[in-house]
Amino acid sequence: FYNITGSTGVTVELIAPNEVNDILSILLTNVDSAAITVDLYIFDASTSTRYHLLFGTSLPVGASLLLDNSDMLAFNNASNGFSLNLKLGSTSDLINILIKK
Question: Cβ atoms within 10 A of the Cβ of 67, count?
Fold first, then answer.
């Protein structure tokens, strides 16, 4: 579970490389008083490449977005050194994230 504010860091590493084998679902919920913008991406530190699951996605006030497609979340970072990261659009944004492993 993550309760993230932009002041925590506009870009936050949610899952470090080699931390988990599989992710079953990710729930993103806007708990801000205004719409927020999020990027969710897999980061390959060896090449500094981002692979976006979400890019510039706007979440209205009180909205939740459930990512539960096994094909989308099928990356295995236990052996490949990828991390899962979230980037907020503003330092005032508030979001809750639930990750089911």
Answer: 16
Q: Which residues contact 20 (CB under 8 A, 6 or more apart)?
A: 77, 78, 101
The CA distance from 16 to 30, in Å, is 23
Within 10 angstroms of residue 53's Cβ, the number of other Cβ atoms is 17
The residue type at 56: G
Report the distance separating Cα 6 and Cα 39, nearest Å. 13
Asked if 1 and 97 touch (Cβ cutoff 8 Å), the reply is yes
- Tell me how far apart the alpha carbons of residues 19 and 77 are, in angstroms, rounded to a whole number: 7
Q: For each successive 10 residues of the chain (101 residues), what is the average pLDDT?
A: 70 86 89 95 91 96 93 71 90 91 81
Beta strand 82-88 pairing with 36-44: antiparallel
Euclidean distance between CA atoms 93 and 59, whole angstroms: 11
